[in-house]
Specification:
Layout: H1 18-36, H2 51-80, H3 84-97
Helix pairs in contact: 1-2
The chain binds magnesium ion.
């Protein structure tokens, strides 16, 4: 099974909450949608950028989404004592059960 391992830091100069990270994730998902749609000229607006610029924007926003999701994982671990590593194994098992792997 091919895997992509992502290691992102806990943000030490912010105090994220479940609600603030949820809002931030939606904001970052919106920016990712903007990069994939608007900047590639798919929204009908005239704000099209060149391909290299679009790819860079997509990757930047995708990592913002991953960072925010990571921050939410730290919040959930702190609040509820959940072991995200164990949950990741359950997640992969779920993917197997659904026949995605
Ligand atoms: Mg962003």
């Amino acid at each position: 099974m091919e895997r992509k391992t992502i290691s992102l830091p806990r943000l030490t100069k912010l105090t994220p909450t479940l609600e603030s990270t949820m809002l931030k994730i939606t904001e970052e998902v919106g920016e990712l949608a903007q990069a994939i749609g608007k900047f590639r000229g798919l929204s009908g607006e005239r704000d099209k950028k060149d391909e290299a610029e679009v790819v860079r924007a997509i990757v930047t926003e995708l990592l913002d989404v991953a960072q925010t999701a990571t921050s939410m994982m730290f919040v959930i671990e702190d609040l509820y004592g959940i072991d995200i590593s164990a949950e990741m194994e359950r997640h992969v098992e779920k993917l197997r059960r659904k026949n995605y792997l």
